[in-house]
Write the structure tokens for this entry.
Amino acid sequence: FGVANLISSDTDVRLSLPSHQKAKVADIVVNARVACDPELLEQIVKKVLEHQARQIDAALEYRQLQSFRPGRPVPTHRYVTAKNS
């Protein structure tokens, strides 16, 4: 398998683990932390994937889609006063 990473809209995609193979079937996992409405993000991702699939004459099959807004973090420990260094 191969792994590509896009960490910012200011940088190019980085192939961190090239497969050096031609694939007939691929699983794509998109793990994105984006400041926008989850439903909008899902629409954008699907639109981009469908566009790219058309470019290479590929068929898409969505097996699982999840988009959500995570809750605020709840720390288990807090300092009452500042810790001295």
